[in-house]
């Protein structure tokens, strides 16, 4: 029979489940983490768990936190387990499970309780995983969205905030008044320059109610940039059953993830930090080159395989990566046109990273889907593909493959795969994209004229001509033949 996960069960875990390699009673909290979802517990919490097992950094344990009513469900689940989480690594060579104990507490879902905890001088880092959309970034300008209703509330009610950022400011103000040093604010979300985004949001909110305090925050609070990476699917009854039936543990909130993790951090922690470099994290002066590598090789790679895979009838990513046509296309595009746009990073082998990304895509245990990769192309293409095209054009480089990637997206937006099967709408702008894609069959410029997506890129002849040529080839010769021709 499966055992219920809690502190009392740690001494009798099944042989197949590894427990924390340290005394949790010796831990003390140095970090408040807001947003205790799957990714945080598969990533940051695992790094800390491994550090504590070395006997170091045990004053850097995590106090979890949430600010939304829905966060109470996670708090309740973890409280019954004494804040323990089982992490299952989806390694094709064999699944493994371990119980992590880096979290030792979780504040009440209450703004006053969270402000109180962050005001404690023992807390030296406040970290956040609030999703890419949780930072109040204006979609048009990329700046701070000061007109969001929650932001307006916190600006006029700074002593009773609704948002995590209002609570952070309230705690910082209390620490300043008490003569205590400010904590470091660290974003763990997957967005470029996340530290700069965090500073923009926190300082932007402060400016709306207290300009002098905003200046103090801007000058005294550190917001390090970080790059995070670990594929972490959502938890469902399937994962809970896996823990119970295969590993003999009943966990209300287990986490499954790939065995790969990467964490690159700007070394900017004035009040100290855990020595995470001893368990695989990297501390650098500038995270931006690592972010660009990930955005272009991993995220750009996802975009590259998404549309031809859908057009050829693949549903799962690992099935697409078993198709030699997709594998050859991805390798050729990244080697010839994407990697050459990256500036060298000392100690980093881009080709080795590319191979590792392809290996991760091929992992059948993850169960990632092609429809997920195809989703929201009108937002993803401008982030992951079009900047590469601009850089390549500016360098005078060939863009035939990058133009083919965009042509494949256009062909996908036309709404049918190679067998004539309908493709379900997968973009908020699907209707407009389909109209343009069908018109582009006769006039390729009809697709590139979408300035919301392409800006002035369609006016650059080297790209526009290559796109037109590749799109015509897709319609006349088919996806497989066009991919093969490029990959030769």
TrEMBL record:
Domain Mannitol dehydrogenase N-terminal span(s) in chain numbering: 30-278
EC number(s) recorded for this UniProt protein: 1.1.1.67
Main enzyme class: oxidoreductase
InterPro entries for this protein: 6-PGluconate_DH-like_C_sf, 6PGD_dom2, Mannitol_DH, Mannitol_DH/Oxidoreductase, Mannitol_DH_C, Mannitol_DH_N, NAD(P)-bd_dom_sf
The Mannitol dehydrogenase C-terminal domain, residue ranges: 286-475
Keyword Oxidoreductase: yes
Gene Ontology molecular function, alphabetical: mannitol 2-dehydrogenase activity
Sorted UniProt keywords: Oxidoreductase
PANTHER family per UniProt: MANNITOL DEHYDROGENASE 2-RELATED, MANNITOL DEHYDROGENASE DSF1-RELATED
Annotated protein name in UniProt: Mannitol 2-dehydrogenase
């Amino acid at each position: 029979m499966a055992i219920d996960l809690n502190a009392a069960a740690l001494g009798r875990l099944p042989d197949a489940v590894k427990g924390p390699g340290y005394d949790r009673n010796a831990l003390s909290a140095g970090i408040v983490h807001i947003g205790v979802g799957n990714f945080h517990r598969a990533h940051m919490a695992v790094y800390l768990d491994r550090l504590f097992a070395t006997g170091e950094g045990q004053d850097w344990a995590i106090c979890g936190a949430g600010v939304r009513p829905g966060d109470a469900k996670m708090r309740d689940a973890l409280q019954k387990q004494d804040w323990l989480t089982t992490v299952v690594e989806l390694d094709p060579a064999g699944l493994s499970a371990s119980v992590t104990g880096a979290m030792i507490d979780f504040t009440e879902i209450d703004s006053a309780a969270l402000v109180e905890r962050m005001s404690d001088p023992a807390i030296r880092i406040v970290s956040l995983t609030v999703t890419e959309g949780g930072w109040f970034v204006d979609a048009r300008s990329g700046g701070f969205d000061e007109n969001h209703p929650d932001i307006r509330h916190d600006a006029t009610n700074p002593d009773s905030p609704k948002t995590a950022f209002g609570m952070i400011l309230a705690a910082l103000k209390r620490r300043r008044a008490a003569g205590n040093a400010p904590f470091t604010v660290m974003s763990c979300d997957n967005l470029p320059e996340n530290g700069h985004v965090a500073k923009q949001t926190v300082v932007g909110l402060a400016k709306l109610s207290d300009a002098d305090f905003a200046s103090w925050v801007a000058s005294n609070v550190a917001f390090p940039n970080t790059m995070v990476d670990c594929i972490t699917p959502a938890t469902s009854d399937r994962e809970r059953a896996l823990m119970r039936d295969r590993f003999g543990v009943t966990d209300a909130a287990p986490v499954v993830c790939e065995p790969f993790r990467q964490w690159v951090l700007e070394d900017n922690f004035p009040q100290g930090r855990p020595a995470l470099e001893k368990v695989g994290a990297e501390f650098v002066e500038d995270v931006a080159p690592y972010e660009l590598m990930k955005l272009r090789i991993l995220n750009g790679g996802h975009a590259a395989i998404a549309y031809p895979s859908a057009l050829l009838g693949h549903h799962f990513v690992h099935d697409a990566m078993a198709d030699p046509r997709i594998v050859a296309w991805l390798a050729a595009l990244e080697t010839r046109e994407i990697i050459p746009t990256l500036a060298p990073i000392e100690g980093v082998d881009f080709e080795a990273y590319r191979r590792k990304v392809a290996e991760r895509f091929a992992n059948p245990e993850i169960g990632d889907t092609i429809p997920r990769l195809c989703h929201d192309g009108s937002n993803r293409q401008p982030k992951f593909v079009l900047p590469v095209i601009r850089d390549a054009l500016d360098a005078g480089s060939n863009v035939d493959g990058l133009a083919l990637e965009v042509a494949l997206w256009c062909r996908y937006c036309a709404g049918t795969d190679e067998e004539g099967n309908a493709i379900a709408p997968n973009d908020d702008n699907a209707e407009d994209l389909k109209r343009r894609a069908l018109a582009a069959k006769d006039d390729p410029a009809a697709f590139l004229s979408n300035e919301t997506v392409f800006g002035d890129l369609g006016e650059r002849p080297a790209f526009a001509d290559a796109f037109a040529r590749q799109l015509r080839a897709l319609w006349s010769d088919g996806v497989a033949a066009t991919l093969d021709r490029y990959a030769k």
